[in-house]
Design brief:
globular; 4-stranded antiparallel sheet; 25% helix; alpha+beta; 8-stranded mixed sheet
């Protein structure tokens, strides 16, 4: 790693190089971020709080998260502590009415779930991932988080040029050489080279240029990376300011693993140059080309079991819920981008029956009396998540039942009396042994 040492000597203060290199051979930290609404109290009592994120917690050891039903219920997200520094965006978001936010490089979902908590269910988040194979896990993690004001897309950054000055905030956690992950993922050391750094710099500038036009004047651009060299970090911020036109609001901040309890990370917040006319938001044309917008009528006997202001839509046989304030824009985005998922999947229609979908159970606004509930223990919860049949106590009410584990809705079964149908999606089935 001689070349890496030389690059760090050119990027860091002299006293940081040797401690950093020594630290890279130590054990990485383990951390989670609790859901702002679902996590009641401390999920892991006695753990330390991440200093820059009040919902972040350090764990003393790494449990098998797959075998924790609370993880599948969306009570917490397993996220590297340094990446939680985006929590500092909160006060800026609070000053924007119904913010439109783009998470441009979103999979697997850590920053998007954090942004949703900061947005408090208001506004609209477009969570984008370029690599098609990573989009399903992104959509699954956002479904677990339970907010309706999100659209999951699979688009190249250049595609957002169709939306000039549309977003109030753009977050770009850019693909990078991964130096900040050398401790957490030793295999990244094998692929690192100065040539890779140069390649990443060029790719990052292409992404930044492609995204820039979609950000409104006066909008916020949050740049981050999990690398440590100056070319991909500080020099990229200088390039944004000089070539794209912005002023620095926050940072740059560099998180070094020998100085903080976390992995290597870099971030800075900028404001795009130019005044913005107060109160003006670009409105996309209706997808059908007609003026105005009329929400769909709720189908008869449909299970509209959400609190709050929602409108509804049928996508094939699937009933979906959307925040009323942003439904029109979410539908319009579907005509301009490759949308993988949006809103909350509520139920599928089968003949005269409405079969509740898993995402309804995970929704933050699920009505408490939506379905009869059955409280289950850990063994039963893991059997459900493994998509095994559950044997319910004799006398349990028949029909669709909501399973509750540790106070958290987990999913649905249909009790037929002597047996029950497990409605957990096959794609989310866990395969680890539960012994």
């Amino acid at each position: 790693m001689t070349e890496f040492r030389h690059m760090m000597e050119a990027s860091l203060m002299p006293g940081d190089v040797d401690p950093l290199l020594s630290c890279l051979d130590s054990q990485p930290t383990v951390s989670i971020r609790q859901h702002a609404l679902k996590a009641a109290g401390e999920l892991f009592p006695g753990t330390d709080t991440v200093p820059w994120c009040p919902l972040g917690r350090y764990l003393d050891e790494r449990p098998v998260f797959t075998l924790d039903p609370r993880f599948h219920a969306g009570a917490y997200y397993v996220q590297e502590a340094s990446g939680m520094s985006l929590w500092q965006l909160g006060p800026y978001l609070d000053n924007i009415t119904s913010p439109r936010v783009l998470d441009a490089c979103a999979a697997p979902g850590g920053k998007s779930t954090l942004l949703l908590d900061l947005m408090h269910g208001e506004g609209l988040l477009v969570s984008n991932e370029v690599i098609r194979t990573r989009v399903p896990i992104l959509a699954e993690n956002l479904a677990k988080w339970g907010y309706a004001n999100v659209v999951v897309t699979q688009n190249d950054p250049a595609d957002f040029g169709k939306l000039p000055e549309y977003f109030d905030v753009v977050v770009a956690d850019v693909p990078c050489s991964g130096e900040g992950l050398f401790r957490k993922d030793p295999d990244t050391r094998k692929t690192w080279s100065p040539g890779l750094v140069a390649l990443c710099v060029a790719r990052q500038r292409r992404i930044l240029s492609d995204l820039w036009s979609s950000l409104r004047r006066g909008g916020l651009f949050l740049y981050s990376s999990c690398t440590l060299n100056r070319m991909e970090d500080e020099e990229q911020i200088d390039w944004i300011r000089d070539h794209l036109g912005a002023r620095l609001l926050l940072g740059p901040q560099k998180y070094l693993p020998h100085r903080v309890r976390g992995e290597g990370f870099f971030m800075a917040l900028l404001e795009k140059n130019g005044p913005r006319e107060a109160g003006v938001k670009k409105i996309l044309p209706a997808p059908d080309g007609k003026k105005g917008w009329t929400p769909y009528r709720v189908p008869e006997r449909a299970p509209v079991h959400l609190e709050g202001s929602y409108s509804w839509s049928m996508k094939g046989q699937m009933l979906k819920a959307f925040p009323r304030e942003s439904h029109r824009e979410m539908e319009a985005l579907g005509s301009m981008l490759h949308v993988f998922h949006s809103g909350i999947a509520i139920a599928t229609k089968k003949g005269d029956d409405w079969v509740p979908w898993a995402d309804l159970a995970l929704a933050t606004d699920l009505k408490k009396d939506a379905y009869p509930v059955v409280v289950i223990d850990r063994e039963q919860a893991l059997a459900f998540l493994s998509k095994n049949p559950l044997v319910l106590p004799q006398g349990t009410e028949k029909g669709y039942l909501l399973l509750i584990y540790n106070g958290l809705p987990l999913g649905f079964v249909k009790n037929l009396g002597k047996r029950s149908n497990n409605l957990h999606p096959v794609s989310r089935r866990i395969h680890l042994s539960i012994q």
